[in-house]
Amino acid sequence: MPLHVIVGAGPVGTALAHLLADSGEEVRVLTRSGGGPERAGVTRVRADASDAAELTRHARGAAVLYNCANPGPYTQWAEHWPPLAAALLRAAEDTGAVLAITGNLYGYGPVEGPITRDLPLAATDHKGRLRARMWREALARHEAGAVRVTEVRAADYIGAVRPANSVPLLYAAPALRGRPAFVFGDPDLPHSVSYVPDVARTLAAAAASERGWGRAWHVPSPPARTVRAMVADLAREAGARPPRVVRVPRPLLRLAFPVSPLLREVGDLLYQWDRPYVLDGAATTEEFGIEPTPWEEAVRETVRALGAGPAEASRPS
After folding, report:
1. How far is CA 55 from CA 38, 80, 135, 192, 213, in A?
2. By its UniProt entry, which Gene3D superfamilies does this protein fall under (predicted)?
3. Which residue among 101, 106, 222, 255 is least enclosed by CB atoms within 10 Å?
4. CA neighbours closer than 13 Å in the CB half-sphere of residue 293
5. Which residues pair with 149 in a beta bridge?
6. Which residues pair with residue 154 across a beta bridge?
């Protein structure tokens, strides 16, 4: 029975651990706190994954090493991501494990039309350029024959995710309680979201097949919906009244940038909400047969994970 080592126990790492353990695989989850799913088939280990020697020790014998980490808030990416990415590459090289990376769409920057995996990585902000650079470095090591790598790229998450870590859920959280939803971009443009279990399924499939290595893969995701429609669907499932959606004026938002480093970082990505932002995962479906979870099921499980039911949603605002 092969060993699968997962770095990170956030939404994707947790979903992946359950998926692999349910399939009878041996799973080891590494986090700084030693947390992770408490269940049969999963061993939780406290470790600093940015320490290449320590990570290599825990990954020895693994068939796959999965990067499902989220090292620090936006404002600290430049500090925390490079050493972690370097350690993961080193551990994969030293152990022979396939390195499967959880990625996002930041590396593409602003795009026109559907976001396909063949688009150039032309990010305009430092977070996107960082993600693009890390992938290029990993791909270069793959092409040199030093390591086998794959990257799975997803849109904003829905599912068992804290609202603070998902812009659509950050918008929707007040609406689930019958309050207005304040959004940063045009609420009537289509925007893709990826359901966390679908991200986990794509990671497992891309890592398991030689055809998945040396390429980036997009998570098959439900048809893109407008923010207004997403918020309404989530509120309806929670038993809340139809929400009022209010767009925050861009000049007002920019006034907060000097005093809020986090909002400044979010501001770099507002292009995603000012144009259609549609993820194309057709190549993944064609190659691995993965279909997106139906939207209605994703909505139901998202609301359940948020703990927002009719009793809570009916509170007065």
Report:
1. 21, 15, 19, 34, 21
2. NAD(P)-binding Rossmann-like Domain (3.40.50.720)
3. 255
4. 20
5. 99
6. 104
Q: How far apart are CA 196 and CA 13, in angstroms?
A: 9
114: nearest Cα among 227, 276, 285: 276
**pLDDT per position as a tens digit, 108-123:** 999 999 999 999 999 9
Q: For residues 185 and 277, is the Cβ–Cβ distance under 8 A?
A: no
The pLDDT of residue 308 is 59
Residue 268's CB is within 10 A of a number of other CB atoms, namely 16
> What are residue 45's DSSP bridge partners?
30
Taking the C-alpha atoms of residue 197 and residue 267, their distance in angstroms, rounded to an integer, is 28
Q: Residue 194: beta bridge partners?
A: 157
Whether the per-residue pLDDT at 314 is higher than 50: the answer is no
Structure tokens that stand for 86 in this block: 């370097």
Give yes or no for residue 312 having a pLDDT over 50. no
DSSP string, 129-170: HHHHHHHHHHHHHHHTTS--EEEEEE-EEESS--GGG-HHHH
- Residues ≥6 apart with Cβ < 8 Å to 31: 7, 8, 9, 44, 45, 46, 47
Q: Could you give the domains of the chain?
A: 3-157+193-218 (3.40.50.720), 159-191+223-279+289-313 (3.90.25)
Q: State which amino acid sits at residue 246.
A: V
What is the C-alpha to C-alpha distance for residues 313 and 239, in angstroms, rounded to an integer? 6
pLDDT digits (tens, 9 = 90+) for 156-205: 999 999 988 899 999 999 999 999 999 999 999 999 999 999 999 999 99
Mean pLDDT in the chain?
Answer: 93
